[in-house]
Amino acid sequence: MAKRGKNYVKVAKAVSPTERYDLQAACTVLKETRRAKFDESADVAINLGVDPRHADQMVRGAIVLPHGTGKKMRVAVFAKGAKADEAKAAGADIVGAEDLAAKVESGFMDFDRVIAHPELMAVVGKLGRVLGPRGLMPNPKVGTVTVDIGRAVEEAKGGKVEFRVDKTGTIHAPFGRASFDKDKLYDNLKLLLEAVLKARPHSLKGQYLKKVVVSFTMGPGVKIDVGQVMAQLG
After folding, report:
1. What are the residue ranges spanned by the domains of the chain?
2. Predicted local distance difference test score (pLDDT) of residue 1
3. CB-based contacts of 25, cutoff 8 Å, min separation 6
4. Stated pTM of the model
5. Which CATH number is 10-68+161-233's, of 3.40.50.10420, 3.40.50.10140, 3.30.190.20, 1.20.1440.20?
6. pLDDT digits (tens, 9 = 90+) for 85-121
7. Burial of 46 (0-12, 13-18, 19+ CB in 10 A)
8. What whole-number distance in Å separates Cα of residue 43 and Cα of residue 178?
9. Both ends of the chain: CA-CA distance in Å?
10. Is the distance from CB of 230 to CB of 194 less than 8 angstroms?
């Protein structure tokens, strides 16, 4: 096991390894674990009692966080004509159709989110092998395939977070930055957890929410009391 640095060991003392914190206390403790000189991302890992190998237990969704993520999102939009103009007016970083698809196929990936008008999905669909593995493929279930292009761009730029369970049954998602105060972190985390709870598959039997841990990029994990989360938000 790799030896932890002095700064890590110092901030880790703020976290009890045996305690499970309620949401507000977790955000308070999390603020005490900041150690990097850069503005670290605040991330949550949510382990679910689902088997993502079954299509009816795939958990995914999107939520606009009240205080955003603190990250500048680079948004690419596949649209033409008036919808392309709408995307540009809303603040999209790059807009195109077949020309943009050709750039992506050639290796251009200077964006964090992809939004597409439905009429361009035939073009975007051919990019599945490039966008899919990076989690960038537009999907109507999370609002990235839509006729309301302007709104989708504004939400993406304003802090919309997409979440999807991975093959281990875990969701990893950002909910702010180390520079956020504890109340903003709490508001964002609470809303994100509510969205995940609402996305519970109808076919699931047994425990859904198994483990929740929050941390900054370079810091130790803060474990959350799952029972308290279910009592408060479930």
Report:
1. 10-68+161-233, 75-158
2. 47
3. none
4. 0.85
5. 3.30.190.20
6. 999 999 999 999 999 999 999 999 999 999 999 999 9
7. buried
8. 10
9. 37
10. no
